[in-house]
């Protein structure tokens, strides 16, 4: 009876610009904007010595910073922190390989492809595929389709 | 501008547009550029020329980009839907993306979209099927659940579908049943879905998540997954990192799948078959062993993923421990070893928590102990968090306590407030009688410099611990007053009310309290909360220290009155009441006080309350006789027993963290029993559980009913505690908390239920129904009446009440069910709970003298009316503890009845509408042999057996 799932995934830069927002729960647009701002306020004040987990409303944010980008996953408080922390890294490594040394601009110009990468790795608030080899194979196959 | 090497989908126009937007120097320039583009796209869409697929895709993609920048988009939806029927993947993909992000589930276009999805889902091209499945998973509306709930499972178990399609189908289905649980027929697919765990491919993370949810929704149908999940897990943990090539992450084989499998196993009781159980224990041991091996990589990814698995394994170990009771059907009896049977019938044995693995718990705890000093902050944080859970287990509590110093040190040195917060939680959880003074002292010391964010909660925790473990009331009073001194601003009303309640209820604390508050008030700057406590206590008990001339009545009064003008009106009002109490306690200073009351500052005070009090008190003191005054201003009577107000407050602040401590809380009472020696509920329950032995009687259903069947609701042990108490938390998950408070009188019961919404959103379609298990509908044993239905919505953070009236018609076993249904974020939820309505609640103690007792004892001399049990005492024989237990159970423990004072005798009547069942009990200890003989006689034989078994 107790649901454990990803509630949303956010990629934001230090200035608070959203580079990806993927919602797995129904929120209306105002609520989404509020969440985006709150998450930014919560994670940007933390330093590298802090944990990668932070309590957030009734949930928690598992996040990791890569250069100027914060990758944040919002999950339920009883869920496995380290599993999601590494899910973020796994995702980043896939992006890195797919975009050949990914940078923030890749996510801007190819936003519609980033959604495809996300859907390969996360779906319905759950982890879908974890093998980088499998994901990259699939993405390259899709890339070559007309 | 980065270029992406690709073929058909390089939308140059889109890249140019994005560059333009990025080059805009101002918001206005950006709006201008966007408006220009919108006008362009609108004209293209409206134009006479039919657009080709590529252009349509490009413009829809631009619209999506504009939307993501935060602008409203009010056209283009139809064009996006058109893209769905394209044969080209890239066009379809953009169409689906636009719809997933931008089209709301109540759109007029939904019928059309669903039609397109239907076509794609049955397409021979797997990539089209996947696009359709992802779209369903992303939107997941009720309409989609209805349309695809029967289709998607077919893809999931199809022999032809690729692993990729199956992954998507699994999670798509998960989304559909979260939206609409009845979208799928669970039993029909159970066997095939469970057997996905045997699949040789490693795509199973997704499938395991699905099975996890199905197991929560329909545990019976999916319980077969346990042994398959154990085998799968076993294969993963024993593999080397080269075995599972693609699924090895930094030398850790399939970490995410392992975590999911371990979580799935937490849905069910520990496996009953010894082989499966043994294999599971082996897996858990292997995971613990691997942490001791040298790391295969120095990368943090390696240790993180290894530890992700470890922490989940520890959760499972704790789950196994907390489960307590398992029902084992007869065919398996011979396979059971190492377990302590507690109840036996012709069909079932119930076994007690010897099922837990004390060895694993202690090992887990030692591992976490190492992490407490790890250089990674994450690990220190998680270790503190997990240890909090271990502190609640009988077997690991001591191992946790060994780390006290490290945890105290964390409180002092950690840089991250959330780590310090976990350290506070753990100290709170590990606190017991032996270490409470040190822990409370450390928390008080830390409080001075603690982060503002956690101070209030810490104050509550210090107050609760000092109350709970007070063996000495001077310590309790000192602690609370120190709390007010160092963190007065964070001491809520509940905390200072509580100290007053306790002092009033404890004769032996009053003199000391009066002396100590007096000393504290002498500090030049003292917190207003101190003035409140001081004022109240001196008003009641100032006379106890008035003999000393340093605290003579006048000195006390002057001291309090010196603070008066600095206080807020509510404190001044309290002090005025203290003053009138002083007039009664110390007639010699009456004129001084009357002067103050009659001063214009009071009589003409702008605050109506102060004015009225001053006037009334002044009149009261001048016109009434000393006798009347003494009656009106008599010492306050003791407060009735109630749940600690501070505990209630902490629960409200932090529902999850209090669960454990609720059980053992002491409640001040007017009884003369010594609180310090009084066993807490948890010790009663545990000693009572551990003493359970083989008993022959048919009526085990009370226990059988509480056997957990995989739901995360009330577990066996927790439910047992309700045999002794009438209020507490009945159920709690991430969304909802169900509290209960019952009252019983004769055959009537009134059950108050409190449903608290823990989320920020409204819970919808809320319904609560009570049903009686296994009773004959024509001849019910309990009548249930609900005054009115609970509201159908509960707002975020709100709590609603619901009352049920019961009447016990005849002797019953088991407990009524309470079924809750509600929707959260459009996902329906269902929980079935047992109401703590157990037969002993209808028992009332009957006091009688020795002659009456033994004459009734003899009347009930038929062999069928008696149940006797002789058993070994597992704890030192303690008649007082047994007496408390008996009273908690509902019987009256009789004194001066049995010629041997070591013996305990009790009597009670179970009151039902149709009959009254008298029950007499005699417990004879033999201290030399450390044995007890328990005899219960009752007019109804079954009742005697039932009570005998419950109390042994």
UniProtKB/TrEMBL annotation, chain A:
<dbReference type="InterPro" id="IPR011012">
    <property type="entry name" value="Longin-like_dom_sf"/>
</dbReference>
<dbReference type="InterPro" id="IPR027156">
    <property type="entry name" value="APS2"/>
</dbReference>
<keyword id="KW-0254">Endocytosis</keyword>
<dbReference type="GO" id="GO:0036343">
    <property type="term" value="P:psychomotor behavior"/>
</dbReference>
<dbReference type="GO" id="GO:0046959">
    <property type="term" value="P:habituation"/>
</dbReference>
<dbReference type="GO" id="GO:0035615">
    <property type="term" value="F:clathrin adaptor activity"/>
</dbReference>
<keyword id="KW-0813">Transport</keyword>
<dbReference type="GO" id="GO:0072583">
    <property type="term" value="P:clathrin-dependent endocytosis"/>
</dbReference>
<comment type="similarity">
    <text>Belongs to the adaptor complexes small subunit family.</text>
</comment>
<dbReference type="InterPro" id="IPR000804">
    <property type="entry name" value="Clathrin_sm-chain_CS"/>
</dbReference>
<dbReference type="InterPro" id="IPR022775">
    <property type="entry name" value="AP_mu_sigma_su"/>
</dbReference>
<keyword id="KW-0472">Membrane</keyword>
<dbReference type="GO" id="GO:0030122">
    <property type="term" value="C:AP-2 adaptor complex"/>
</dbReference>
<keyword id="KW-1003">Cell membrane</keyword>
<comment type="subunit">
    <text>Adaptor protein complex 2 (AP-2) is a heterotetramer composed of two large adaptins (alpha-type subunit AP2A1 or AP2A2 and beta-type subunit AP2B1), a medium adaptin (mu-type subunit AP2M1) and a small adaptin (sigma-type subunit AP2S1). Interacts with CCDC32; the interaction is direct and mediates association of CCDC32 with adaptor protein complex 2 (AP-2).</text>
</comment>
<keyword id="KW-0653">Protein transport</keyword>
<protein>
    <recommendedName>
        <fullName>AP complex subunit sigma</fullName>
    </recommendedName>
</protein>
<dbReference type="InterPro" id="IPR016635">
    <property type="entry name" value="AP_complex_ssu"/>
</dbReference>
<feature type="domain" description="AP complex mu/sigma subunit">
    <location>
        <begin position="5"/>
        <end position="145"/>
    </location>
</feature>
<dbReference type="GO" id="GO:0006886">
    <property type="term" value="P:intracellular protein transport"/>
</dbReference>
<dbReference type="Pfam" id="PF01217">
    <property type="entry name" value="Clat_adaptor_s"/>
</dbReference>
<keyword id="KW-0168">Coated pit</keyword>
TrEMBL record, chain B:
<dbReference type="Pfam" id="PF02296">
    <property type="entry name" value="Alpha_adaptin_C"/>
</dbReference>
<dbReference type="InterPro" id="IPR012295">
    <property type="entry name" value="TBP_dom_sf"/>
</dbReference>
<feature type="binding site">
    <location>
        <position position="44"/>
    </location>
    <ligand>
        <name>a 1,2-diacyl-sn-glycero-3-phospho-(1D-myo-inositol-3,4,5-trisphosphate)</name>
    </ligand>
</feature>
<dbReference type="InterPro" id="IPR017104">
    <property type="entry name" value="AP2_complex_asu"/>
</dbReference>
<dbReference type="InterPro" id="IPR016024">
    <property type="entry name" value="ARM-type_fold"/>
</dbReference>
<dbReference type="Pfam" id="PF02883">
    <property type="entry name" value="Alpha_adaptinC2"/>
</dbReference>
<feature type="binding site">
    <location>
        <begin position="58"/>
        <end position="62"/>
    </location>
    <ligand>
        <name>a 1,2-diacyl-sn-glycero-3-phospho-(1D-myo-inositol-3,4,5-trisphosphate)</name>
    </ligand>
</feature>
<keyword id="KW-0813">Transport</keyword>
<feature type="binding site">
    <location>
        <position position="54"/>
    </location>
    <ligand>
        <name>a 1,2-diacyl-sn-glycero-3-phospho-(1D-myo-inositol-3,4,5-trisphosphate)</name>
    </ligand>
</feature>
<dbReference type="GO" id="GO:0035615">
    <property type="term" value="F:clathrin adaptor activity"/>
</dbReference>
<dbReference type="GO" id="GO:0006886">
    <property type="term" value="P:intracellular protein transport"/>
</dbReference>
<keyword id="KW-0254">Endocytosis</keyword>
<dbReference type="GO" id="GO:0030122">
    <property type="term" value="C:AP-2 adaptor complex"/>
</dbReference>
<dbReference type="GO" id="GO:0072583">
    <property type="term" value="P:clathrin-dependent endocytosis"/>
</dbReference>
<dbReference type="InterPro" id="IPR009028">
    <property type="entry name" value="Coatomer/calthrin_app_sub_C"/>
</dbReference>
<dbReference type="InterPro" id="IPR013041">
    <property type="entry name" value="Clathrin_app_Ig-like_sf"/>
</dbReference>
<keyword id="KW-0653">Protein transport</keyword>
<dbReference type="InterPro" id="IPR050840">
    <property type="entry name" value="Adaptor_Complx_Large_Subunit"/>
</dbReference>
<dbReference type="InterPro" id="IPR008152">
    <property type="entry name" value="Clathrin_a/b/g-adaptin_app_Ig"/>
</dbReference>
<feature type="binding site">
    <location>
        <begin position="12"/>
        <end position="13"/>
    </location>
    <ligand>
        <name>a 1,2-diacyl-sn-glycero-3-phospho-(1D-myo-inositol-3,4,5-trisphosphate)</name>
    </ligand>
</feature>
<protein>
    <recommendedName>
        <fullName>AP-2 complex subunit alpha</fullName>
    </recommendedName>
</protein>
<dbReference type="InterPro" id="IPR011989">
    <property type="entry name" value="ARM-like"/>
</dbReference>
